[in-house]
Structure prediction request, 316 residues.
Amino acid sequence: MVTLLPITPKFIVGWVAKRYVAGKDLQSAVAKMKKLGKKEGCCFTVDVLGEEISSLEEAAFFLAEYERVIDAIGAEGLDANISIKPTAFGLLIDEEVALSNVQQLLEKAAEHEMFVRLDMEDHRVTQSTIDVVLKMHERGLTNVGIVLQARLFRTIDDINAISETLGDAADIRLCKGIYLEGAEIAHTGYNDINTAFSDALKVMLANGSYCAIATHDKPVVADSLKQLQAMNMGPTLDDPREDARVTGADKGPGYEFQMLLGVRGELRRQLLKQGHRVRIYIPYGKRWYEYSMRRLRENPDIAWHITKSFLMPWSK
Ligand code: FDA
Prediction:
């Protein structure tokens, strides 16, 4: 499927993307969130499609668009926050400018008591992305959290280092990691990645971090539920960890599950039914085509997941 991509007509890619992308504009994202929120009682994080940019003028576009997103979430009273890609704010061009852009956005989000998550991109920016979060906390902007990728060998050290600096204000989304990193820095096999995910979650739970568990993988969800239960954490329980501090109307009791729009809806609904807080990642934007093609090329597993979901559309 990946080798056929360059000759795949755009309308076919568009047909595929429709399931995973809310639409071309903010209006479509708002409509999607209203509909899903009403139907399922889930919450959301919004992603404006796009990442590594080639000029700082492009960063200005993302800053302005995300400001519109914050306003729209506030105006519509949606249970939602935002997820941003630091390279879209200039991280690989000029770190100081990127910091200033992120700071401006966090200040605006703070006015709306909104949380901002920095998505994690490939290994070139792992440390600089963590540094942005730490610097923002240092500047008093605590409405920001990070994503760590279980597949990277460094992740448990990163969790510990972040916990050491931020203490109980650490808010971490743990995912497997979409970028296929080399065997010298990352686990590459399915079982190893799952074990690493479990180990990383254990440390996050023990350190008192807010744990955003981002996966659609049933064994990983089952293991996470087991770990939560062992910690005496659950949908109807107050977070019993004395050193846990990340709370708020938009937070679960020390944890939440997160899933991508269009992926494993049945699992999401099952968790919601059990009372867990579940957040759906809502990407939208004009660059849906480039985004979809890049994701497919970067990680051919996704092409397989998509093929599977065509053959078995009920798996939605
Ligand atoms: P796995 O890849 O084993 O998939 C389990 C099952 O889920 C598959 O068998 C398939 O059925 C289904 N599935 C998974 N992904 C699918 C897809 N794209 N399309 C169709 N079906 C799919 N990564 C990163 O590097 N940086 C980040 O910031 C983020 N942010 C993020 C936010 C949220 C909310 C989620 C859910 C995920 C991310 N990711 C991410 C992506 C993450 O790292 C990972 O690549 C995917 O979630 C797939 O991994 P799973 O844990 O779902 O397992």
